[in-house]
């Protein structure tokens, strides 16, 4: 991977396009980046940290600036709003993602880091896991398109969009950064007596708005998953431990001991909340009874969610990690107030040394089936 840090003996530079680490051949005056294909001039004599800082800044700007080119790839030919949902068709895209960041601007619930979370996740999915830009649907409160504002109605449509027309080999990602709450369970399927729920931007609106219960999320994106389809939900909210109502919750101790806890329940109709043969995995910001907060993770005034920060740091620090090591690293980052070192590579440009976590939370892992968390590689 081009962004992996090379050995100290090699001569390196920063890509002027995306900020990745690049190895430089002896005597070379320029080098082409394998990620963004930009050509970077190489100075004959190092000029200290200035050049690295410039590369970092350019990389950050490019990383978080949405691509302006015309859509291309499997979903491009089918671009255009279907009458039913109002989102681009992506049939043929083997990787698709729904990213939701809600700031609740101008309310007492305002979050500073939600939109930054979406920007970071979009970059990570495109540059590290090969998700086509036109197969990533983003909903934010700041979007000028009313169909892309994360109201309850739009978010429910987007969830159905995510799983529509999927087939074996498809990889789906649902990322949500915002508020979560608990509601009294009214159908008897929750061991603790409470449903977990996501808060759309209109969650307090009694005329068509409201929260989205874990029961609804399960029905929308878990039960439709066919054989060979894989879904990862990365949920950065309060009370999100079992937000997908998946059958198995992984109990992981600080010493590394782990076991799956069967939380499977049946609906009043007799149905279970399992997939239709696919695999669903959720990585959430905290347990059902815990809260998850913003963290000042950029220099300056911007923020990210503590869970999103710890997730990206774990993925970037150890490519090819397992689920067990990922979860352990995320918990250690939050427990250690961000850790001694920041996120490597261009995405970590302004994350370094300015971390302030103000919450006690432990990321959770749930799945539709059990597996060895220290043997199964984390792959999107």
Plain-language structure description:
- The chain has helices at residues 50-63, 114-129, 152-163, 214-222, 306-317, 323-335; strands at 12-14, 21-23, 30-32, 39-41, 95-101, 136-140, 171-177, 180-184, 194-198, 212-213, 230-236, 248-252, 258-262, 279-284, 294-295, 304-305, 364-367.
- By secondary structure, it is of the alpha/beta class.
- Helix 5 (306-317) packs across helix 6.
- It starts with 11 loop residues before the first strand and ends in a 13-residue tail after the last strand.
- The radius of gyration is 21 Å and the shape is globular.
What are its keywords?
6 helices, alpha/beta
CA-based shape: globular
The chain-level mean pLDDT equals: 76
Radius of gyration: 21 Å
Number of helical elements: 6
Structural class: alpha/beta
Distance between the termini: 16 Å
Strand order of the main beta sheet, please? Answer: 6-5-7-11-14-17-12-13
Q: Helical content, roughly?
A: 10-25%
How many DSSP E strands? 17
Biggest sheet details: 8 strands, mixed
The helix/strand order is EEEEHEHEHEEEEHEEEEEEHHE
Low-confidence stretches: 1-10, 44-61, 65-84, 287-301, 350-358
Percent of residues in beta strands: 15-25%
Which helices and strands appear, and what pairs or packs with what?
Elements: E1 12-14, E2 21-23, E3 30-32, E4 39-41, H1 50-63, E5 95-101, H2 114-129, E6 136-140, H3 152-163, E7 171-177, E8 180-184, E9 194-198, E10 212-213, H4 214-222, E11 230-236, E12 248-252, E13 258-262, E14 279-284, E15 294-295, E16 304-305, H5 306-317, H6 323-335, E17 364-367
Parallel strand pairs: 5-6, 5-7, 7-11, 11-14
Antiparallel strand pairs: 1-2, 3-4, 8-9, 9-10, 12-13, 12-17, 14-17, 15-16
């Amino acid at each position: 991977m081009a962004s992996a840090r090379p050995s100290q003996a090699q001569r390196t530079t920063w890509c002027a396009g995306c900020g990745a680490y690049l190895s430089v051949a002896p005597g070379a005056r320029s080098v082409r980046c394998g990620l963004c294909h930009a050509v970077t001039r190489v100075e004959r004599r190092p000029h200290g940290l200035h050049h690295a800082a410039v590369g970092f800044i350019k990389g950050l700007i490019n990383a978080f600036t949405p691509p302006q080119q015309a859509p291309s790839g499997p979903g491009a030919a089918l671009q255009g709003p279907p009458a039913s949902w109002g989102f681009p068709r992506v049939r043929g895209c083997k990787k698709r993602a729904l990213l939701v960041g809600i700031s609740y601007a101008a309310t007492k619930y305002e979050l500073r880091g939600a939109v930054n979370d979406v920007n970071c996740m979009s970059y990570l999915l495109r540059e590290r896991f090969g998700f086509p830009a036109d197969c990533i649907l983003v909903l934010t409160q700041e979007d000028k398109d009313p169909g892309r504002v994360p109201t309850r109605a739009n978010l429910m449509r987007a969830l159905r969009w995510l799983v529509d027309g999927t087939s074996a080999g498809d990889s789906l990602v649902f990322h949500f950064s915002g508020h979560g709450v608990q509601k009294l369970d009214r159908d008897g399927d929750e061991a603790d007596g409470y449903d977990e729920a996501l808060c759309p931007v209109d969650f307090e609106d009694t005329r068509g708005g409201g929260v989205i219960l874990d029961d609804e999320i399960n029905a929308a994106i878990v039960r439709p998953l066919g054989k060979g389809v894989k879904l990862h939900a990365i949920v950065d909210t309060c009370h999100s431990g079992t937000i997908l109502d998946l059958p198995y919750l992984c109990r992981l101790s600080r010493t590394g001991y782990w076991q799956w806890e069967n939380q499977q329940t049946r609906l009043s109709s007799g149905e279970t909340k399992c997939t239709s043969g696919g695999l669903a995995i959720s990585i959430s910001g905290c347990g059902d009874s815990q809260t998850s907060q913003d963290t000042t993770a950029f220099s300056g005034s911007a923020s990210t969610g503590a869970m999103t920060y710890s997730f990206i740091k774990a993925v970037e620090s150890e490519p090819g990690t397992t689920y067990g090591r990922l979860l352990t690293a995320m918990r250690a980052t939050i427990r250690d107030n961000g850790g001694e070192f920041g996120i490597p590579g261009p995405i970590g440009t302004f994350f370094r040394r300015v971390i302030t976590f103000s919450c006690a939370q432990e990321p959770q892992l749930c799945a539709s089936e059990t597996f060895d968390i220290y043997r199964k590689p984390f792959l999107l």
